[in-house]
Amino acid sequence: SHGLLVVFLGTLLENTLLLGFFVPGALIILLAGVSAQDGALSIPGAFALGLAGTVLGDTVSYFMGRFGWSKVGRGSLVTFAEKVREPILRRGPLFVLIYHFAGYTRLVGPAAAGLLRMPYRRWAVADHLGAALWVAVFLGIGYGLAAAGITLDTTDRWFRIFEWALL
After folding, report:
1. Whether pLDDT at 78 is above 60
2. What DSSP line would sit under the chain, residue for residue?
3. CA 10 to CA 4: how far, in whole Å?
């Protein structure tokens, strides 16, 4: 009954700096796809709220990196950022687009872009596109798994296999 709220909060928390270690947003999106296939959730609603949560979490993380690290001072992280800034900014949009799919880089990628002072408009376009692709791909995988017979019904003989695969 609270599936869409869980999709929003799960993606928001996973994509907010460091909270993703504790909240499995990718798993939530995958399960939303499974639930959408059997009619328990609306696929457009799950996509819209998953995208909104992801974009909001990424934006908070970007600004934490952009303004939070300046308060820390001239530590080794800031010195390292100055050394890698130019090579990363040259390939910035590709870096931003890909970090959504590279495991835990989605947790630190937006903050790193902020720390490296990637211009917000340039970052936002690539990030929002990457977020939309990430949500669509994981919803699609979940939907496809459900269409292939995977269910969230614990009495189904394949449920335990699915459960272990997700774990």
Report:
1. no
2. --HHHHHHHHHHHHTSTTGGGT--HHHHHHHHHHHHHTTSS-HHHHHHHHHHHHHHHHHHHHHIIIIIHHHH-S-HHHHHHHHHHHHHHHTHHHHHHHTTTSTTHHHHHHHHHHHTT--HHHHHHHHHHHHHHHHHHHHHHHHHHHHTT--S-TTSTTHHHHHHHH-
3. 10
Amino acid code (one letter) for 54? T
Q: pLDDT tier at 84 (50, 70, 90 boundaries)?
A: low
Question: pLDDT tier at 45 (50, 70, 90 boundaries)?
Answer: very high
